[in-house]
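Long-time lurker. I teach an intro course on protein structure, and each term I like to show students one example going from raw sequence to a predicted 3D structure in token notation. This year I'd like something fresh instead of my usual example. Would anyone be willing to generate the tokens for the chain below so I can use it in lecture? Attribution to the forum is fine with me.
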Amino acid sequence: MIEQLKTTIHQAIIWGDSKLLRECFYKLKSLTSEGIIFSPEDIDFFINLLEQPKFLGLGGGWYFAMLFQLYRESLSSAQQDRVNSAMLIAYDCLEKISPELLYEAIEQAINSGEEMQMKECAKAISSAVSGLSHFPDKYLNLILGLLQENRFLTSKGAWHLLYILEIENWEFLSETQKTQLLPLLESSYSSFTDWMAWFVISEMLGEYFANEQAFQVLCRLKNIEAEEPRSLIPHGLEHIVKDSHDQQLTQKAYAELLQMKYDPSEQVRDEVNTSLQRIANRGIEFDAFL
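-- Reply from a regular --
Happy to contribute to a lecture. Here you go:
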């Protein structure tokens, strides 16, 4: 199997076929998760690929890092040293990865229905911006564009592209970038089909934005018809109550939570009660204000 994939990798490089090249490395990553062991000759083959400019131009630095980020832990000390040196080359190339190549890879992930592929695309962006003190517009614009594409919103693992903004890069987003992001989080919310996307957006609104504008978005989203995405809105309101330093905003968010106790959906009411209990556990009292 590995020998066949190595042959196909050579063909992909000769043909300049980035899609075929990615398919080979996705397959190799799947094989490593199944416990397959690379021979020393295999490792030499992959390291030597980094000496080929055409391989790197097709995104090879990303694919090499994708394959060896975790796998190198299973290698001998000598092999780890070789791979670690090669990873420096891979990471340097990864910093230069183009949004066009990433978009092509995301399209491939959508078509495949494989969440692992979408997750790897998100990790590629994270690695490309690692060490920067800002989040480049070219990558944010890529994500903003995807938030307007229904095929992306309904794809498996789409939430990974939002998660990297929330967890790893929020402090590096400019106020202008956050302003661009906010309305698209609202307009795309109902179109996602993965509960994790609803969870991440609700958390971004309540914990990270945590302002009047985000509160108003949550108030509008709590009126959407679909039960499941509506059930994640209490999570965002809860974060405003617990994390906001604006007392007036905190009180308004708590009042909205209380109103949601009468939602027609049992699932939504259960989430409201869970959020109210967590707020109570924090010792936050509002009876004097409401």
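Some talking points for your students: The two ends are 67 Å apart (CA to CA). The mean pLDDT is 93.
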